[in-house]
Amino acid sequence: MLTDLLEDLNPAQREAVTHPGGPVLVLAGAGSGKTRVLTRRVAYLLRQGVAPHQILAITFTNKAAREMRERVEQLVGAQARDMWIGTFHASCVRILRRDGYRIGYDRNFIILDEDDRRSVLREVLKERNLSETRYPPQAVGALISAAKNQLLDPEAFASRHRDFYRQQVAMVYAAYQERLQRNGAMDFDDLLMQAVRLLEEAPDVLAAYQRRFVHILVDEYQDTNHAQYRLLRLLA
């Protein structure tokens, strides 16, 4: 029964859960039940006849994703297993494992952790005879990460920054990215950037996901960066 989903909600929460369709933004303070509203919304949609695979629920951390899945499973049972409930990065991994070959990536691409990423950057810096004192791998990596979160490839990054230091970083970025692609690898930031690139460059793939995900729910939407926002705009 729908009433058991709604009976302990206040009027504003109930309005969000039963929203008839189209974009809706829920604004609420910490501890006021936003996650409860999101999970009840999922259960409400299922009871309204929406198929589980038509729902995409996204959050930012693995812990939050686990909690969301557990709460949804408590409400709807095994149906939750057919839904995409996870982080932005986990969702992008699923998309890229399936269709990343369209932009030149093997389905079994490697995902670099932070230590691996820094190791590759050190190799690139050494190849280019750049001092780690002047170009610390952590600082260079942070600039590259920020560029990827803005969906800037090496060429776009170079065109935005004319100072000598960042021009050198742009060349390191290009060499680093070439090495990753050659080795069939992505770093954490690539997962978002390359997923967006895939959806932009393969209209049929984008159309398939747009048809599939009738409802997209995002926890802590205010924390989205440019790449995450662009991904959501494409899918929605």
- Percent strand: 5-15%
Q: Report the C-alpha radius of gyration, rounded.
A: 21 Å
**For the residues shown, what is the average pLDDT?**
93
SSE pattern = HHHEHEHEHHHHEHHEH
* Helical content class: 55-70%
Secondary-structure-derived class: mainly alpha
Give the overall silhouette. elongated
The main sheet orders its strands as 2-1-5
Salient structural properties:
two-stranded parallel sheet; 236 residues; elongated; 12 helices; mainly alpha; three-stranded parallel beta sheet
Describe the structure.
With 236 residues, the chain is mainly alpha-helical. 59% of the residues lie in helices and 7% in strands. The protein contains twelve helices and five strands. The strands form two sheets. A three-stranded parallel β-sheet has the order 2-1-5. Strand 1 (55-59), helix 4 and strand 2 (84-87) form a beta-alpha-beta unit. Helix 2 crosses helix 3 (34-47). The two termini are 29 Å apart. The model has no long low-confidence stretch (mean pLDDT 93).
Quick structural gist:
The protein is mostly helical and 236 residues long. It has twelve helices and five strands. Helix 2 (11-17) crosses helix 3, helix 6 (114-127) crosses helix 7 (137-149) and helix 8 (154-160) packs antiparallel against helix 9.
Q: Helices, strands, pairings?
A:
Blueprint: H1 3-6, H2 11-17, H3 34-47, E1 55-59, H4 62-76, E2 84-87, H5 88-99, E3 110-111, H6 114-127, H7 137-149, H8 154-160, H9 164-182, E4 185-186, H10 188-201, H11 203-212, E5 215-218, H12 226-235
Parallel strand pairs: 1-2, 1-5, 3-4
Helix pairs in contact: 2-3, 3-4, 5-10, 6-7, 6-9, 8-9, 10-11, 10-12
